[in-house]
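Data deposition worksheet. Section B asks for the primary sequence of the deposited chain exactly as it was used as input, without tags or linkers unless they were present during the calculation. Section C holds the resulting structure in token form. Section D is free text for depositor observations; keep each observation to a single sentence. Incomplete worksheets are returned to the depositor.
Section A, Depositor: J.P.
Section B:
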Amino acid sequence: MKMTARISDLEEVSKDIAIVIDDKGGLYDESSIEEDFYKHLFASAVSHFDHLVKLATELHYDGSGRRLKFGIVKKAGIGAFACVGKEDIDFIGVHFGTIALVSAIFTRMMSNPNILPNVGDASLETNVGQTYFIPVQEDLENFSPCRPTCSIRGYFSRFLALTGLDFIFGHEIAHITHGHLGILRKTEHFDPQKRRPKLSRLETHALELDADGGATKWTLEYANRVRNWRHKLPVEANNSLGISWREFYANERKTIRYCFFASYLTLRMTSADSWDRVAQQTVSQPLPPYRMGMLMQVYASALMQFFDLSPEQAQSQVSAWCIESEQAHANLLDESGKGELQLNAIASFITGVGNYNEEVNSAHEILAKELSEFAMGETSRMTHPRPRTCDYVVLKGLQRGVELFVIIEAKHSDENPKALELQCFFQEHEGITGLPFSLIFDSNFEGNVLDEALASDGRNYVCGVTQVTSFETVKLASILEKTELLRFSLQHSKCPKLKVDLIQVLDI
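Section C:
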């Protein structure tokens, strides 16, 4: 049975956390979901949360003596919460309405041909099934997820939805790792002498915006990890998944753009169309326009850091992304599928914020020392080099007097430690060939089977098949002009090392 960080029973957490979950509606039972498309989206989200918890564990929990769990809570409104348990388990709860609404937002957007029209074949979309409003909680009858007609756009909608969920989940992780919950627990201490005064409005806003900053860092770092996993993923083929994945992740600047789009709209969908300081001071949570404005600042800083942009260039780029996101929001809510751009929400914050943000920042600075007592640093777990499981060689030779290049890759078999799975790729006049074969070494062989295969046995086999003479080893970068061969090899390779090097030399 597959181990998961998701809880299915309240007995898997401490009693104090179980009480919180129960008060919010208890654990959600997804067996009530009937529509197959939404079942798939829900399962993808749950699997994604499991990956996020494992990553958070690797970064913050290893060696701490504590564990992080998550669960889906039976609450229809969008939201999530974090708990630091009295025992050794911390918990993040995600409302089932969050998954439904975020999935509905982005699948409906990608079903609209006027939203991100450069992705896939937008002409296939007809904007069918729109309801022209965003409900405050899950409404599968009137605002259910909607499968885009173009399968490329369908996959892309899932990437956007998962990124929006990254932001929500990352916000809750930051509440734990930045020490926010430690301060909140002090305000409820049973000993009056140790009890901390309740947080002020400014202090609460400061912690929430700090969690948003942590969520953005989390979202971008996770997206960067996904991009670096490319050589392990089946995303090089020119099928819907591969095309969609490469559009979202292959180019770092595009990835940041799409992360902003997903995060901004996750905030925008619950936003009023205006912001003012008086209204903000009456509520404990920063209102969405405030959070959207701060999101723009964080992304501008990221662009300056990652791409060495000037402040003016970074702000200009983020402003363009903001307009793109607002136009998508307007298009979603318009009957024609192409609405009039409305910037009132973000503009009212930008023009009305005054020195309020400086006051919030000052409140956070005052809390900084206290937060450091509860913050969780990143673990410094020692990593050991992994054994080499695959390798490749590039050969140049003559085939009936004509120059021929061959790429041979070898990979350890998952079933037999003395067996190798090999492929050779070469381009003849008739076209490109990918030839799989295998080698099994004697159980008494004590050498390195990869080296032996690529230097001798595998090479000799390929020579016999291709009838090539005078082979010599060359560098992969030296055959850069053989673009078709390189791309074919990337698409069909099973050797992560070769795929990493191909991605680098092809600069894709």
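Section D:
The chain has a mean pLDDT of 91.
The two ends are 38 Å apart (CA to CA).
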